[in-house]
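Please check this record.
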Amino acid sequence: MDLGIRGKRALVCAGSKGLGRGCAEALAEAGVDIVLNARSAGPLEETAQAIREAYGVNVTTVAVDVTTPEGHAAVLEAAGQIDILVNNAGGPPPGIWSDWNRDDFIKALDSNMLTPIALIKASLPGMIDRGWGRIVNITSGAVKSPIPQLGLSNSARAGLTGYVGGTSRQVARHGVTINNLLPGIHATDRAIQLDTGVANTKGISIEEAKKQREASIPANRYGTAKEFGSTCAFLCSQHAGFIVGQNILADGGAFNSTL
């Protein structure tokens, strides 16, 4: 399917690996030029070059921490006029309720709520003026079904979800859509981190922890960054203009609900 976005320009945050890279590659395959952000310059440049060689699009890299004022400014300056924004950030560390203090919550909010909101606010005026834009926030299946050990993530991502719920309906009439894409367990570094946490808690091997978590998914496997990226690219396409303010699960059926 032709997504109808060839020649558009996208900013993809945390795009050097994992789900962010999956989204960047899927958009590049559709002919979108990419502004790619991540904290570490080495992996970022490697990913950028791989995308350039594979898809022949322009890729601009910005190796900064976008949650800082300086990083935020640098990303926006490099991005310039964008048509597509993919907000993404690694999740806060797991734990239990007694592990976290105020500073932990502020850090989680900065990364998973306040920074995405700031980038949305910076991108919307230009998108509205041009009468077209797509914003996809990578959040978590925990928004619909909170995960006990991910209290920081549950809290911050729920806040972003509430903001998007209202804002998306204010800007839809301008041809701009904002949606959230909710991953379940995917084969990324984050999955390894959480598998390790389960293994340590239960006193089992990481391999056994992975098997147990796979068994909790009706698809009986972890998702891939490639299929996640393809879903993101569709939400950014010309065909998704009537999808507004939605929380779309990509979790292999793990969340069990009729609605």
Q: What stands out?
A: The mean pLDDT is 95. Helices lie at 18-29, 41-55, 69-79, 102-130, 151-171, 189-202, 206-215, 225-235.
